[in-house]
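User: Can you help me understand a structure? I only have the sequence.
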Amino acid sequence: MTYGTLNNLLISYEKTDITELYEYDYDLFMLFYDIFKDKPFTEIPDTAFMFMEIDSWSGTSMRGGVWQYYEINSAEQGKSERVAKYLKSQCEYDMADIYAYGIHDYYNVKNGEYPDEWLDESDKIDNWIYENEYYIYQWKKDLISSHKNEILKLAEK
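Assistant: Let's start by predicting it. Here is the structure, written out as tokens:
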């Protein structure tokens, strides 16, 4: 993506009401994904990493249940823990706590027979995400806005 195109995307994102941000989330997600898809999660800058993870977390919850997000993430040890740690470092204690509530070792459960308590916890997380949908949109918007210059450096020359 060229600098001008990326800058226009970021300006549009900043000016958009949080109830309409979903129109731009895909473009930002794919920008980050395309740039970092071949890098280990530990090498992805916080802004891109957190945007993709919180977008995936909330999106998976809305589409089919957040347990699927945790199931996929548990294959990469430390990935979910990085998200929770970052949220806490930004004083997002409620989101960090609810996020961390779903971290389990799904990857090593045989035959996908997850304990009922894990699925019950996932239901609580899904409810929290649903009740805080616009808060999450605002959080992502603030993340992008506060790191605009960093993101612009990702533009193609």
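Now, to help you interpret it: The chain has nine helices and no strands. The first helix runs from residue 3 to 15. Let me know which part you'd like to focus on.
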